[in-house]
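CHAIN AND CONFORMATION:

***
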Amino acid sequence: MKKIIFAFLLLLPFGLSSSFTVGADETDLKKLTANKEDVNSLLAAQAIFQDQIAKNPQDYDLRIRGADNVYYLAIQLSEKAAKKSHLLQGIEWTKQAIALQPNAPAGHFFYGILTGLYVQMSDFFTALKSKDIIKDEMEKVVALDPHYSDGDAYIALGEWYAAVPFFMGGSDSKAKDFLLKAVEMGPNRAKPHLALAEFYSKRFKYDLAKKEIDQVLASPIDSSVAFENKRDQEDAKDLLKKIESKLSKPARGYERVNTLTNPPGPGF
């Protein structure tokens, strides 16, 4: 997805814990976080989260909501130092959330997501040390609740196995299996199809990739996650342009697959 290999989407219906006082700050947070495309509002919300989380050391939900806000900031901010700073703050909140409720999936999910985003801006050695965190946290999400966030953990695991070299644990067959599982769990969602399209494209399976892109572009816009849907469709259009360019001048090693008469076997 950048592209972001752990670029997951979600908008979760979090409730408030009893420790968080419903008042002006909560009203402000709801207003400020309603539009995920308004970076200035998200930054203002971030300041409130920092203040309220410091005042409420036992509030699990508040930390998860803060991590969610960090996610939307991180995928839109262009200034690297600010982006890294917010990600580190969000990662700390997820660790605190996990300590409060180790058997709840949300903390593990956001810990993996935000770590993945942070790794993108890190040096090789930091990325190397962090790679297993992403995989381990997503495996915990699947173990705790495989349907959490509509199965986004399966997308993350698929992208992990696709991106990591085989000698470090990567596996194309496992990547495909996880991505297909994500599609199975959300056949009408754009994100799983986009992730599978990117997987096929990088392995020169352009016909299969275009089939998944068609699914993304045909997906209806869900008003509850319109921001994510629009981003996914734009990414799908960009990927289609790249594929069409490569098809006009086939790259060396290009393997055209006829999905009707010669479907790929497992583990390709």
Observations:
- The longest helix spans residues 226-248.
- The chain has eleven helices and no strands.
- Confidence is low (pLDDT under 50) at residues 1-22, 257-268.
- The CA atoms of residues 112 and 134 lie 4 Å apart.
